[in-house]
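Risk register update: the risk of archive-format incompatibility is retired. Evidence:
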Amino acid sequence: MRTKVKKLTSVILAAVMMLGILTIAPLTVSAATYGDFEYTAYNGTIAITGYTGSAESVEVPSKINGKMVTDIRYDAFAKCLKLKNVVLNKGIETIGFRAFKECINLENVTIPDSVKTIDTGAFARCYKLKKIIIPDSVQSLGNGAFYKCINLTQVNIPNGVKTIPGYFYAQGYADETVAAGCFQDCRSIKNIIIPSSVSTIKESAFSGCTSLSSVFIGSGVKELDKRGFYGCDSLAEITVDEKNANYSSLDGVLFNKDKTNIVIYPNGKKGTYSLPNKVTKISSYAFCNCSGLTSVTIPNSVTSIGDSAFSGCTGLTNIMIPNSVTSIEGSAFSGCAGLTNIMIPNSVTSIGGSAFSGCTGLTSITIPESVTSLYGSTFDGCTNLKKIEVSQNNENYSSYNGVLLDKDGYNLIRCPEGKSGNFVVPDSVGCIESYAFYNCTNLTNIQISENVYAIEGYAFENCKSLEKFVLPDNVYNIGYYGGWYELHPIFSGCTNLKEIEVSSGNDNYSSVDGVLYDKEVEKLIYCPAKKSGEYTVPKSIKSVTDYAFDDCNSLESIVLPESMPEFSYSLYDLECCPSLKSIKVTGNNAYYSAEDGVLFNKDKTEIYVFPRSKEGNYTIPNSVTEISSNQFSQCTGLTGITIPNSVTQIVDNPFNGNLKSIKVSEGNKYFCSYDGVLFNKDKTEILFCVGNKKEFVIPNGVKSISGAFNDCSNLTSVTIPNSVTSVYNGFNNCPNLTSITIPQSVISIYDNGYIGSFLNCGKNFTIYGYGGTEAEACALRNDFNFVQLQVVPTSVALNKTTLTLDTGKTSNLKATVYPSNASNKKCTWSSSNTSVATVDKNGKVTAKKAGTATITVKTSNGKTANCKVTVNLPTPQITSLSNTTGGIKISWNKVDGAYGYRLYYKPASGGWKRFKDTTATSFTDSGVVPNKTETYTIRCIDKNGKTVSGFNSKGWSKKYTPVAPTITRLSNTSKGVSVTWNKIAGVYGYRLYQKTSNGWKRIKDTTATSFTDSGVSPNRTETYTIRCIDKNGNTVSGFYSKGWSKKYTPVAPTISKLENTTGGIKLSWNKIAGVYGYRLYYKTSSGGWKRFKDTTATSFTDSGVSPNRTETYTIRCIDKNGNTVSGFYSKGWSKKYTAATPKITKLTNRSKGVSVTWNKIAGVYGYRLYRKYDRGSWTKVKDTTSTSFTDSGAKKGKKVTYTVRCIDRKGKTVSGFNSKGWSITRK
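Archived output:
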């Protein structure tokens, strides 16, 4: 009942909000479609109202039927999940409310300079939008216009916008973009420039921009909400235009113009900070959430510290409040857990609510005498605070035993949360204010004096250790709070409270068995949390407070009397009693009935309360028509439930996740069950899944899932069929569900605002789904992991099935994968013969060589398509014909795939004649004739010599003109100047010229390519040139007119031979051209050269030698005047002189004996003559210096043999001898 009322209120409020937000358009005169666009025509213009296509790129037309398109209306492109690129044409003035919201793949938007308004949520949740250029024509930006564009890194604020909108209160409205700041949660923006046109920056305008590091505030900003940059944790610098009349900046910190008020200290700044001495006020939220701030120095000029000024500064460990400060506003230091000590100066007069809340490091605090205003909530959440002291001179407050009181001790304002054990309320106290003992979890007993008359609402909330409470006589006011006349709980959260005892003398309250009532026991005020067993409501009870049973965690049974009146919220509090097993109603109660421990309305058409601890299976009575929201949601012991035919309505999800079985009577017209799961009758909607399911396959046909799997703590896997289109509040609190696969059919997952579909699921929750679908959108909205599934290709087709190319040419094949929404359209390409044709990853085919190949494209799942490619080699082209020394050089382009080339020339008669096969790309035809024109063509061949291309039938022609020969070398040689030149193709010979004083003189015609000019003279420079001639001696080429020159320097002669002869050592040397003669030298014993012969010959025998002595010679050229004209070899050439064996030249019989004559041997002293007879040995005959001797001792008639050898003057032999000798018969 209560839940339904709240839900209805939310729905009504949402509708009201919707009406308040939407701009009511003028009455349209027509509605129609234009391609994939839906539009309305009004006031002579066109408004785009919808888009039904699925294209990735869309251009919005500038005109439709001749009328200008001016508006993109409400939700026109919202959730176009495949849309990547949008072009808006000139003429569009308004991008409407949520026009492109949740286009999750939108990357690029072109906005024309005609646009004036970008409305609320226009591009909200465009997660992949990285850059947008907003033209200066835009004058208005709406709330949440770029909300959660998490990858947006670059955006400009146009110089025409006056306000950057931010948060506004929109309770009950499900779409949070309506309440969001314009650029809220744009996590990738790093820099923002606020132009001069902007005058106002609202709360949360840039909140959550976690990468934002710098902001520039333009000159026009007048109003800047301090929370405009809330949560910008990287913001380190704010700078302000010097022309701004309201704000300034210093060191990246924002101040008012004269720097007396610090406005924003950027969250990204770290370390310590000292405020300038001019500052008098620290504004609200100035340092809020500056977690990196460790210490702040506040100057004596500061008089006030604003609301939440240092809230959330968790790293702040040191702060000194100067004695100039008079006001510390609410939540000023809330959440500063690192502060262990705070000294409040005597200048402070007021301390706001929650000023130091959550300062868990504080153990004590002293309130100075100056404080006139202080709240009980000032120190909420200071769990370690044990003592609040007040200066004795304070005129408004006092303290007792560390507890805060007003000055006269009448009002107990606050007991510090760190107090423990027993606490006695001072006798002076007459009123215990609301929240006075809030969260004093360690207090076990609170003793109240007889002087207390009032205990305000929530006074003892969360005193978890309190077991008994005694209410004294004089208390007459319990639970009234803040001017409200209805009672508020004072023991809420006192989970161990067993008994409330009221003094017998109290005239206003009473207690029975520890339960608190009014004096007459007509109103049930509060049942203690630890009240156990069975509790019977007294018959006298006429009313029950709303929170009477809020904390009853031990109550097992309750009995309602026959007289029990109808009551509202307190009845439903029984649903929250975790130990309650039974509810009974005695007699004939006019409003309630009970059966099997369950509370119903009188006629049992509605279950009011089902006890939480009731266990086992439960069959709902056949009278019940409605099962209310959350009816069984707390019943953890309930394992099975049976729904009767009578039930016609089940509100939301009324069941607990621990149910193991749910059944529906077969006759029920509205619901059915299958495998323990609850469905509507036709099984198009799944309503509830029992909690023991680990895996569940949702039957095909189910269209929606609404809260069905909430609290299924054992669920690990669920299969959603393609029939499901929507999920609403579907899988919350499924801790073991770590992933889910969502089919393409799901077009709506409701998880906006505070209602989710996958809240509190397993760690690293992952959605598996298809790209560009609601599954991906849901993952992005909630920061879940997303794994894109493949829409499996069914086929692939090529734009061509056959293709003919010349070698080296390319062509692009295009593959189309079906269906068009296949997730993975990537294909691989291959060729059956890569030597013929190749294909790259983009389908580009390149012909390599002649032949055929099949190109195959294959999808990721193996679907293929083929194209047959025939490659012909292209005709080679002769690119150059040039006259060279070798003939006509023919060059042509390389043809890929060709093994080689065949050259042809055209003879004087007939067709082409083949003359050369080659693998090169050039060839020089040396078989040319001067002044004759040659014509060539070429074609490709394979390795077998087969032609594989065409040829140019006309050919390419060139007249052969021999080039002038080039003398390549001039060198001095022994024969003269050697002239060498290059060979010129096609010519008969060459004519060599020498330059004289009268010009060029022909000196030689030759067919060779070199000639040695012997008609040279030493030290004279000779100049030569050359030209080609034919066989008739006619010149057929030019010549180099400057010629080539060489100074003739005779080379040093070379002694080519040294040999021992009978005349001495014979020297021979080469002839040197142009010289007159030669000068011979020998080396003396002292090492110097000595001239010993000038001669014009090329040999000479040195007879002045000595046997066995080595002689060394050198030589140089001389002219006719005896001057040397060449160098000489300084080492010389050496020869050891060995005397030659003498030869007997004549034997003659004479009367005196045998006359023996021999040749003269140079350098020897004399000779020794020997004779012998047959079979005899050699006998010395004579030593003599002569070259003849007559042997008178030879025997007549005998054959006498002679030999001879050389001797020196000592008679020592210095040569060999002829062992056979020379013979004669002595007569």
